[in-house]
C-alpha cells in the first residue's frame, strides 16, 4: 500500500519513527547555557486566587514535604567538551543580541573565532546510595570531563556508565556511599491535573524548585529522532517552569517520588515558554537499570507499524486507514512478537496488560518500558470482536514485507543532487557528501523542512559520498529512510530527516 507524507511510526517495534528536524526549532533540550539577564524583565510578582476570587499568598497545595525530600538527591552536572581541531565557534545573532554589541566585539566582530573547549551545565538525579545518577544523554554526550556537585556543595568527578540516545537517557557514576537518592515510582499512575515539582539547576542557579500540573501524557514531539533511528518518546507534559540547565533533573509528585526525568521544552526562543517534557519514570527506570547491569539499554520490539497520531481525517481516508477505538495496525513484521501472537494488519490494539491504549505514542511508551523476553497481554479488536493474546517481546523488530512498486531513487525525492567537491569537503571538515540542489515539489519538501544546500552525509547511518551511493542507499532502504547531514554554514550541527513513502 502506498503511504503518504510520513504516515507511519514504526514501533519500538521496528524501523523509523516519524518526526522531522523542524521540531528542533520548536522543541529543544534545555541543557547548555545561561547568562545574565535584566532582572526587571525576568522577575515579576506572582499572585494566586482562591475559589472566591480573593488573592492569597500561596497555592493551596503544600510542596514543602516533596521539595525537602527530593532536593538533596538532585545534582548539578558540569561538563567539558573538547573543541574539534580547526573548528570555529559560530555565534548566533540572537545570542549577540542577548548580550549586546560587546559580545560580537569579543569574537572579533565577525561572529566567529577559534572554538575553545566547550563547557555546559545540566542536572541529574541520584538513584542509588553508592552514586549512580540518571540524566539526559544530551547533557553528557561528547563530554571529556564531568563534575557533579551535590546539593550540599560537595564536588565529585564522574564517569559515564552508558547512554541511550533513543530515549535521551544516560547513567553516570560518582564514588560515594550513603548518598541521598530517589526511588522511581509508577508513572502509569500519573494523571492529568496532578500537581508536580521540577527540581534542577537552571541557568547555573543553585537548586531550584518550580511547580505546575501535568497538562498531558504520552506526548511525542520528535526531538529524539535527531539522534536515533528508533527514538522512543512518550513524554509527560507539564507547565512547571523548566529552563536551560534543568535537563536531567527530577520531576516529582507531591510526595517527593520520582515520576520523570526532565528533558525538553517547547519554545521558540530556547527559554521556558509554558510547556516542559519529562521522560516517564517507568521508561527511565528500565533504561537506567539496563545500563547499570549491562552497559546499554536492552530494547524490546513488538513489530508493528501504525499511523501517525496527527493524521488528518482526509489523509486517513486517502490511505484507507480505518477509524476505530485504539491503535490501527498498518503492517506486521514477519517473525516479530506481534506476528507470532496472531496480530494482523487491520486490527485495532485497544489495551496492553489491561490498560487502555488510545494512541500510538502511548503504545510506544508502554512497550519501550519493557525488555526482550517480557510477556505482554495485547487486547485487540478485529471485525468488531475483541480478543486478548499474550506476546513475548523480542530484541528485534522482525522483517517487513517489501513494498509494492519500484525501488526508490534520489530522483523521486523532488530535488537535484550533486557530489560535494573535494575542496568544499575539506573546508567543512567532511570526508564527502551529496548536496541538495534545486529543491522542488516532492518527498523532501512534502515531508521535511530541508533547505537547498543541505549536504547529505549518511542514509540510515551509512556514509554516502556520491549521488550514485545515495541511490544505492535509498534502494536498500525499502519504503523508509533516515537521512543525516549538515548545512554548510554550521557543519558541526547534524540534522536528521525521516522519509517515508519512498516507493510511491
UniProtKB/TrEMBL annotation:
The keyword Isomerase does not apply. One of its GO terms (biological process) is proteolysis. GO terms for molecular function: serine-type endopeptidase activity. Pfam families: PDZ_2 (PF13180), Trypsin_2 (PF13365). The keyword Protease applies. Keywords: Hydrolase, Protease. SMART domains: PDZ (SM00228). InterPro entries: PDZ, PDZ_sf, Peptidase_S1_PA, Peptidase_S1C. Coiled coil: none annotated. Residues 291-359 form the PDZ domain. Belongs to the peptidase S1C family. This is Serine endoprotease. It comes from Flavihumibacter petaseus NBRC 106054.
Amino acid at each position: 500500500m502506498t503511504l503518504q507524507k510520513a504516515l507511519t511510526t514504526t514501533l519500538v517495534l521496528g524501523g523509523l519513527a516519524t518526526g522531522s528536524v523542524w521540531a528542533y526549532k520548536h522543541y529543544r533540550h534545555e541543557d547548555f547555557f545561561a547568562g545574565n539577564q535584566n532582572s526587571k524583565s525576568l522577575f515579576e510578582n506572582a499572585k494566586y486566587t482562591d475559589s472566591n476570587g480573593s488573592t492569597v499568598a500561596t497555592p493551596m497545595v503544600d510542596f514543602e514535604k516533596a521539595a525537602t525530600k527530593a532536593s538533596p538527591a538532585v545534582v548539578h552536572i558540569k561538563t567539558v567538551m573538547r573543541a574539534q581541531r580547526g573548528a570555529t565557534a559560530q555565534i548566533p545573532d540572537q545570542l549577540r543580541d542577548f548580550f549586546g554589541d560587546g559580545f560580537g566585539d569579543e569574537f572579533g566582530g565577525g561572529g566567529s573565532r577559534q572554538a575553545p573547549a566547550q563547557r555546559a551545565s545540566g542536572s541529574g538525579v541520584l538513584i542509588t546510595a553508592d552514586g549512580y545518577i540518571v540524566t539526559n544523554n544530551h547533557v553528557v554526550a561528547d563530554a571529556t570531563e564531568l563534575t557533579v556537585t551535590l546539593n550540599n556543595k560537595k564536588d565529585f568527578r564522574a564517569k559515564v556508565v552508558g547512554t541511550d540516545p533513543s530515549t535521551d537517557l544516560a547513567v553516570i557514576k560518582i564514588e560515594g556511599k550513603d548518598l541521598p537518592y530517589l526511588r522511581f515510582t509508577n508513572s502509569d499512575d500519573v494523571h492529568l491535573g496532578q500537581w508536580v515539582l521540577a527540581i534542577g539547576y537552571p541557568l547555573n542557579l543553585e537548586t531550584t524548585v518550580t511547580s505546575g500540573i501535568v497538562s498531558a501524557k504520552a506526548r511525542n514531539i520528535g526531538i529524539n529522532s535527531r539522534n536515533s533511528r528508533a527514538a522512543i518518546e512518550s513524554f509527560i507534559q507539564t507547565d512547571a517552569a523548566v529552563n536551560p540547565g534543568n535537563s536531567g533533573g527530577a520531576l516529582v509528585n507531591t510526595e517527593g517520588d520520582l515520576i520523570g526525568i526532565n528533558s525538553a521544552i517547547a519554545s521558540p526562543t530556547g527559554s521556558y515558554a509554558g510547556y516542559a517534557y519529562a521522560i516517564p519514570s517507568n521508561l527511565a527506570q528500565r533504561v537506567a537499570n539496563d545500563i547499570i547491569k549491562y552497559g546499554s539499554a536492552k530494547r524490546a520490539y513488538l513489530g508493528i507499524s501504525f499511523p501517525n497520531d496527527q493524521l488528518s481525517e482526509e489523509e486517513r481516508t486517502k490511505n484507507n486507514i480505518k477509524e476505530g477505538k485504539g491503535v490501527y495496525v498498518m503492517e506486521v513484521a514477519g517473525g516479530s512478537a506481534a506476528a507470532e501472537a496472531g496480530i494482523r494488519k487491520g486490527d485495532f490494539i485497544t489495551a496492553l496488560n489491561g490498560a487502555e491504549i488510545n494512541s500510538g505514542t502511548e503504545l510506544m511508551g508502554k512497550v519501550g518500558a519493557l525488555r526482550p523476553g517480557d510477556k505482554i497481554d495485547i487486547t485487540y479488536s478485529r471485525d468488531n470482536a475483541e480478543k486478548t493474546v499474550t506476546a513475548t517481546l523480542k530484541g528485534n523488530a522482525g522483517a517487513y514485507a517489501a513494498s509494492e512498486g519500484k525501488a526508490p531513487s534520489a530522483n523521486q525525492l523532488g530535488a537535484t543532487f550533486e557530489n560535494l567537491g573535494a575542496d568544499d569537503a575539506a573546508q567543512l571538515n567532511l570526508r564527502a557528501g551529496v548536496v541538495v540542489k534545486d529543491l522542488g515539489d516532492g518527498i523532501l519538501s512534502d515531508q521535511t523542512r530541508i533547505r537547498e544546500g543541505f549536504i547529505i552525509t549518511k542514509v540510515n547511518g551509512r556514509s554516502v559520498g556520491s549521488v550514485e551511493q545515495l541511490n544505492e542507499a535509498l534502494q536498500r532502504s525499502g519504503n523508509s529512510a533516515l537521512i543525516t547531514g549538515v548545512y554548510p554554514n554550521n557543519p558541526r550541527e547534524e540534522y536528521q530527516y525521516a522519509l517515508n513513502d519512498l516507493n510511491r
